[in-house]
Amino acid sequence: MAAAGTCALITLDEKDIPMVRVMDPFLPESDFTVWFGTNSKSRKVNQIKKNPNVTLYYLDSDASGYVVIHGIAQLENDEREKEKRWKVEWEAFYLNKTEDYLLIKVSPEWMEVISYTRGIVGDPITWEAPVVLFDSFN
Question: How does DSSP assign 54-82, residue by residue?
Fold first, then answer.
């Protein structure tokens, strides 16, 4: 995945309308689990509580490709995990770090990848992107 690209988190609202927002993820873990910090009172938290199916969209910084990860989101309020993943630059956004700061953990089920610069392209007729399935989805 692109290190300096853009990442969007897509959830579904109460009417099943996709809601998209740009996020600041931590680098994916070796199994492609992705973590985010967020405000515990944000709309996305309530949307995940109602429907944990989410999509992550990463665009390469040079726009030469993308990664789409479909997965299940979990809300994590464990103080050790939160401290481990805290970013000092977030201090201005979380006036009460204990109550306002929450983690989102996305466990991937499958992902699509397109990278023209790396020779990873979609089907020439249908444009369907190559798909990677994760063990948790099989």
Answer: EEEEEE-TTSSEEEEEEEEEEEE--HHHH
How far apart CA 12 and CA 19 sit, in angstroms, is: 6
What's the CA gap between 18 and 9, in Å, rounded? 10
The pTM is what?
A: 0.89
Question: Residues 109-130: pLDDT tens digits?
Answer: 999 999 998 889 988 899 999 8
Domain-by-domain residue ranges, the chain? 6-137
Give residue 1's pLDDT band: very low, low, confident or very high (50, 70, 90).
Answer: very low
6-137: CATH topology: Pnp Oxidase; Chain A (2.30.110)
Nearest-angstrom CA–CA distance, 36 and 106: 8
Q: How far is residue 6's CA from residue 61's CA, in Å, rounded to a whole number? A: 7
Residue 22's CB is within 10 A of a number of other CB atoms, namely 9
